[in-house]
Structures
1.
Amino acid sequence: MANRHTIILMQTSHNRATRTFMDYESISQAMDGICALYERKLKELNPAMRNITYDIEDLYNFIDGLADLSALVYDHSIQAYLPNDRQWIRQRMLNHLRKLAH
């Protein structure tokens, strides 16, 4: 499960030109990548703040505020990518952050 190539498909607004993708070597790295995107957004919105904190609800609001977000995760057993929706990403994010906290 740890080394499952993951592609995050994202559209930040209703403008189709904002569609993009990011690929990662694992689900965990993909969750870190989404957190990093949110942290960059927070820094853009609050350039004077040195330390910015947020909680899982703030991160969920960011995820839910995107026009589209999904993940394609490689399944070695069928040698194909399986699609996962925003709710799946939210659950994986919570599990990922819980692991980092312990």
2.
Amino acid sequence: MATPWAPQPLLDPWVLSPAHLERLRKFKIQIRIANEKYLRTHKEVEWLISGFFREIFLKRPDNILQFAADYFTDPRLPNKIHMQLIKDKRVA
């Protein structure tokens, strides 16, 4: 005769085991390292973000979303960033 099925206690699916936590920690470290390497090789990202924040603090727009849309779709932006990268190389 077959043994009757007995329900198993449910484990919380959102709780990670110590081994999974360690794997997650190592994964996060690797992602941060990869992101840092990417940012160091792409100075234009720094200029895009710092320029955006500089303009926000100078102009203090009421509608941040519209300001961001206008800032990042400005057809002059690529040239501004390019010129800043050239200036950066001259200083270095």
3.
Amino acid sequence: MASKLIQVQSKACEASKFVAKHGTSYYRQLLEKNKQFIQEPATVEKCQELSKQLLYTRLASIPGRYETFWKEVDYAKNLWKNRSGLKVEDAGIAALFGLECFAWYCAGEIAGRGFTFTGYYP
């Protein structure tokens, strides 16, 4: 156990040195490659304008999302009506999806409690 800890520490140290050595060049390359998305000068007014654009773009996408949601519900209803034709693989995939949803719910609850398992902080 202790030898594994030492190995992990040495790997973390190597990774830290690599990031310290190459991190700034990667950062510069990333910014250069995506400079068309950078707003200059970054003023408060420009940031507010961009946030409004994002908000109203998201609001404009609600009708499409609503329609897609009801298509998915209709598909699920159709599957339920024709459940006698389902294969075991389909049922297994559905069960795994449900289990994954429950796991994400539990992880969210734990994070919401401040990463405690027993209860919320007073």
4.
Amino acid sequence: MEPKHKELLDQCHQNLLESITDADRVIELLIVSGTLSQLDRFELDQNCSSSAEKVDHLLKMLMNKESDHFLDLCVALEKAYPDLYTALFSNNGGGPLDHSTGKSLDTNIS
């Protein structure tokens, strides 16, 4: 993966862990696109008990693949979590989102 893509994923890492509530939705889209194999899915299912663990392992897996799958991840996020996708690229990895409103949960309330 290109260094600039790794850097962006590093910046967004915590937001992704907190905001992707159903990792299997994203994983399924990445399998359909050919980014992940069934073996990758098996590894994720066997080694991760929570959705956040799956997201963490998935991001590491994508960063360590020979090809740059950043755009594939973006497409999967756009399909599965359009509000999250928008926030990541307009907010440079800001806090977790309230998916009912599409707004950051980190907003200070006075």
